[in-house]
Amino acid sequence: MIAIIDYDAGNLRSVEKALVSLGEQPVITRDRKAILEADKVILPGVGAFGDAMGRLHQYGLVEAIRETAAQGTPFLGICLGLQLIFESSEESPGVEGLGLLPGKVLRIPDCPGLKIPHMGWNSLDIRPGASLFQGIENGAYVYFVHSYYLKAGEESVVAASTEYSTHIHASVEKGNVFACQFHPEKSGAVGLQILKNFISL
């Protein structure tokens, strides 16, 4: 069973729909027991870092997520879900993230001719052998919507990167923890392949 964590951060239904199209029957839940017993867990989300961490604490989900990661369950953060698994974000100074991986989330620097938030399709520079990107060609395009970007603390966890005003760590994987800044559920056939790769881990 795939658990999609519900903490009022939007974007759950489109992730659910994409998984259903791949033949899965995901459960949207904030029940600690269901999350800890799931075969795979997904943390999607859009919105502000501080608000999201507040809701994760409010619903008692912070420890459930940390336990899920610690017990080796494959875990996927999407968009805001990627940002939350790191230590902090410039969007919400003083708010601690989940800290599953070292790194900080920074505001995309202003750049003449580029709009922020970054909304649209960008190509990925994919690390050879990255699990989420099996069967996907380097340079494949995926869909982004974000104003803040990840600077991972360890270059070795970066599975894919992109350029938009700066060098953006677009996807990470370490052990059983995976995350994408872009939206695989909105990225057509490439995105579905990424989700399929996660399902088959």
How are the SSEs placed, and which strands pair?
Blueprint: E1 2-5, H1 12-21, E2 27-29, H2 32-37, E3 40-43, H3 49-58, H4 61-70, E4 75-78, H5 80-84, E5 88-89, E6 103-107, E7 118-123, E8 125-126, E9 141-146, E10 148-152, E11 158-163, E12 167-174, E13 177-180, H6 188-199
Parallel strand pairs: 1-2, 1-3, 3-4, 4-13, 5-6
Antiparallel strand pairs: 6-10, 7-9, 8-11, 11-12, 12-13
What does this structure look like?
It is a single chain. With 201 residues, the chain is an alpha/beta fold. 26% of the residues lie in helices and 29% in strands. The chain contains 6 helices and 13 strands. It has helices spanning 12-21, 32-37, 49-58, 61-70, 80-84, 188-199; strands at residues 2-5, 27-29, 40-43, 75-78, 88-89, 103-107, 118-123, 125-126, 141-146, 148-152, 158-163, 167-174, 177-180. The strands form 3 sheets. Strands 2-1-3-4-13-12-11-8 form an 8-stranded mixed beta sheet. A 3-stranded mixed beta sheet has the order 5-6-10. The protein has a two-stranded antiparallel sheet with strand order 7-9. The longest helix has 12 residues, at 188-199. The protein is globular and about 50 Å long. The chain starts with a strand and ends with a helix. The mean pLDDT is 97.
Tally of helical segments? 6
Low-confidence blocks of residues = none
User: N-to-C terminal Cα separation, in Å?
Assistant: 13 Å
Binned, the helix content reads 25-40%
Strand portion, in percent? 25-35%
Report strand order across the widest sheet.
Answer: 2-1-3-4-13-12-11-8
Q: What number is the mean pLDDT?
A: 97
Radius of gyration: 15 Å
SS-derived structural category: alpha/beta
Task: Return the string of H and E elements.
Answer: EHEHEHHEHEEEEEEEEEH
Shape: globular
Q: Major beta sheet, specifics?
A: 8 strands, mixed
Characterize the quaternary organization of these chains: single chain
